Amino acid sequence: MEVIVRVGGAGVCGTDNNIQRGLANPSPKLPYTLGHENAGWIEEVGAVAASAGMKKGDPVILHPLISCGLCKACRAGNDMHCVDSRFPGLNTDGGYAQFLKTSVRSVIRLAAGTDPVPLAPYADAGITSYHAVKRVAPQLYPGTTAVVIGIGGLGHFAIQLLKALTPASVIGIARSNAKVEFAKQLGADAAFPAGKDGGLKEVLDFTNGLGADAVLDFVADQGTPDTGVKMIKKGGTYCVIGEGGTVSDPTIDMIVRELNIIGSLVGTYNELSELMELNRMGKIKITSKVYPMSDVVQVMKDLKDGRVLGRSVLDPWK
Amino acid sequence: MEVIVRVGGAGVCGTDNNIQRGLANPSPKLPYTLGHENAGWIEEVGAVAASAGMKKGDPVILHPLISCGLCKACRAGNDMHCVDSRFPGLNTDGGYAQFLKTSVRSVIRLAAGTDPVPLAPYADAGITSYHAVKRVAPQLYPGTTAVVIGIGGLGHFAIQLLKALTPASVIGIARSNAKVEFAKQLGADAAFPAGKDGGLKEVLDFTNGLGADAVLDFVADQGTPDTGVKMIKKGGTYCVIGEGGTVSDPTIDMIVRELNIIGSLVGTYNELSELMELNRMGKIKITSKVYPMSDVVQVMKDLKDGRVLGRSVLDPWK
Amino acid sequence: MEVIVRVGGAGVCGTDNNIQRGLANPSPKLPYTLGHENAGWIEEVGAVAASAGMKKGDPVILHPLISCGLCKACRAGNDMHCVDSRFPGLNTDGGYAQFLKTSVRSVIRLAAGTDPVPLAPYADAGITSYHAVKRVAPQLYPGTTAVVIGIGGLGHFAIQLLKALTPASVIGIARSNAKVEFAKQLGADAAFPAGKDGGLKEVLDFTNGLGADAVLDFVADQGTPDTGVKMIKKGGTYCVIGEGGTVSDPTIDMIVRELNIIGSLVGTYNELSELMELNRMGKIKITSKVYPMSDVVQVMKDLKDGRVLGRSVLDPWK
Amino acid sequence: MEVIVRVGGAGVCGTDNNIQRGLANPSPKLPYTLGHENAGWIEEVGAVAASAGMKKGDPVILHPLISCGLCKACRAGNDMHCVDSRFPGLNTDGGYAQFLKTSVRSVIRLAAGTDPVPLAPYADAGITSYHAVKRVAPQLYPGTTAVVIGIGGLGHFAIQLLKALTPASVIGIARSNAKVEFAKQLGADAAFPAGKDGGLKEVLDFTNGLGADAVLDFVADQGTPDTGVKMIKKGGTYCVIGEGGTVSDPTIDMIVRELNIIGSLVGTYNELSELMELNRMGKIKITSKVYPMSDVVQVMKDLKDGRVLGRSVLDPWK
Fold first, then answer.
1. DSSP strand E in D63-125: where?
2. B226 forms bridges with which residues in the sheet?
3. ipTM of the complex model
4. Contact flag A70-D273 (C-beta cutoff 8 Å)
């Protein structure tokens, strides 16, 4: 089942900063290689991959997990709940490297001739955003409103995905003016600075005081869970994708407004495959910039300081 | 659209105690009549009800809301989200009375000859429990486990409904030994006293440490939201139906376990209609005891003190 | 509940031709007024409509059925399955008239200042197409293909709706070259003439021999059910909206390909409301041309002869 | 991924008779071994199976397909739509043999100590019935009716599954009086002989002329598709599981009654796993009789002549 991939690009994620700062739980044993958003080219294939038609030079993107394929979750397609998985870059060596050994189960081939390098962030930022959008999409019929909190690597996909897959009006909320503008460029019907109340007043104004049908919170820290829950309409959904804070709501409010508060985690192999199809069709465009691996310290710092629009990618061959 | 109902029985709910103690928000203006779980017989009908075939003497049970029928929620069948509704016994005069004026939209006729009096609690305790069970049922396939926290008026329906509508194993959790036994009599596969940790250890033991697929919390106070959330399996659902406490969970836990935390509120007209069909078929049995209205003070006290198995009903004609 | 509407426009549908030719079953009693796609302005309101805020001069579009609001189907929002409905223009006098008496339950108010006249076809052609698209949409993820057979009044909405609400590639099939071109203008990714095999070869070529995930057949006559069913992929759906022919398939094919063959009928009140929101947002545009009522004979003949692009509307005041 | 299973029992299916009579399309090349419903014990395991904890002597039941695990269908859990599968007993050597080589992906371990021999029919008759019941179950709320046409090996599971998983009333229809009685013993609320009209009159009488919400047709031959479609209620579903005949319905009827006509094919690995859980819990009981392999000719003849209640199983070691 094994496949060796020549890494073309590895996306740089906020989680990488957290791991570096020792915030991962459990913390990986050192020495250890970061990088959980990987794309490149097939370098060498085992028998199963060969019989599946994979061959050296094929451009590929990698599902972030190496799932077992045999557990109940895998047999239902829910790779992210696999009970016997590894997550390169989180709990085993990842893609900040020239080669990565993975499983045929993680490999998605891209159309011949595709340059995989700038696409690497689809492998984690993209799929995680797509999975969350698919979960709320069934309730986003014409006339509804969706809010995206945080216009970083994940949020920049979410704005586009909501517009491509649903008829909802989409509001972006970001801390910096640059990202408020970025949200509009990505297709948001409106975008507001987080301000003091996390954009709550603006969302309520936009929805005639009713609140939004779905709120996707890619920050989930520094107060956004409080304001995010307040933004939801009766029967609506607050979806947590970011991490750091705590969601808290009185049960009386949960029942009177019949709220749905859900957590969302990466996504399935087929979801990443569908997402790459959206990229191929031009319905979703990635904003990413490629740096040589030697810039890794500066790139990770830029991310921490909120200076990245879209996503940065490291090229281990430069 | 109007119908006058001769009240045969009015169920006594914990909410009645809360209203009496001034905990309702907003508090109803006095003088005012309690009673939001009502059944009886049609006394007099307006033109619309008459043309729908309703006539004096028909045994009936009443949906707890008087919904408008014209708003978007009503047009989707979601009576409980009606934007122009009244709730007799909560925000307008209710059924602790000999007659109640309601709308044809609230009336469900029972089979000829049915004694509606002991059935009154289906109108609120029953429908609320049924609505919550229907929401979690799609994820309860063979091999899964559901937990019912609180075996009061609502929980005593939930145990039976989970067994009748799903193949899940059902665990009941209650504070008193009498109610633990009651849960078993109602069909629970296992029942445990809440003890110090709310039954958490027992649920984890029963599920080989994985947790339950769905937890229905009819208490949602005094620590149950904390232990209830801990009882859930990856991808599972914690459903709040009780009130009083606060649900709180770190966002990192929400996403890593991909939890669903949802609030559930009464139910639809059709749901009450379906529930009465389950009662008629004998798939669900109510445990209720009828008292004369003059016993109201003692009956409400018994409820507050946890001495009621199932539900008490007041008969305003005795 | 009554409302009198000043008819601004009444759409001309193939069903009108069928009724005129005596093909309706049961045939309406004469004299009788056609017109089941109606829009205009409120002329006069009863008490319920007034209290719902409706007033003379409001631009409105009418749901095609007058549903009872009390049966199980209405209480679930499924107006089209109402057991006690009337259908103006089909089984009671319709909108080829200056005024039409209807129920508050059929009235959808449009944004102030909207000209309702050219929008009338949304009331039947639009809603029927929208209902069918919503039924197949959940299986149209990125990489899938949907086929629209028949680019008439309904099909011209379906092409746009599939593009607006799903990421599927959309193929249009029509008999005339003019309509093949029209399909492309409406946004179809490809469009083919029906030719001898109803476009079967082209659909199989487009989908690498696998077939389409969903086929919406707005003709359902003259062989399209045969070729339409052959176009579907394993696990796909063939949705019948037109009428005239017969669907027929060997059971061995039904199971080996695990086919879904479904009939689709108008839609719900909320669906028409959502559709008008899509129109307001500019996501769907109607192609319609307004004629004075005196042109009715010519307009109906043009439709029968396949010379109409989009839909014709009659203005009873001209 | 390979596993060798010592076959304990192989169920005898009507499809075996069809293959023997040369009706399979394509026909398997001879010599060739029948048997697609297999259970037994693990005899020998490859490395993957060993690391998954499988070992000699474990009682097992086999999913009927050997699916690839890598195609889009497999990655969504839809084993029956695998594009690179083999089906032992249909298109490769099956279980009318003492040993069968299969894949770890087909093996479901049973509880230690389980006798797998009489359970073999769950592997195809059971899973096919379970898959069909799961597809219609969401529309079977209290007050609805489901019909099972054909009380053979599959139908005898369907009656029990509908009662265990839904609150619907269940009607069985069979040709022989013995099977009508059998349906009642299995829990059907009513059972009727097929008679001249396939039980149509009885179903309409039972449902007050409205028709059934779901009809599962395990015969799908000799007129049952005609009468089966006529039995359905507006908005209901006719599900084809048998084979031989042709489904045919005018499109006008498809749309006016908004019918769903669906084909259903075996089921997924997880579905077989869930079904064995229902068996373990005692919610479903198999009626099967075990014969020595030397009786194969008589057993297949008995099946063809309609003399089998439940299912016959061949033991290749006797």
1. 99-103, 107-109
2. none
3. 0.95
4. no
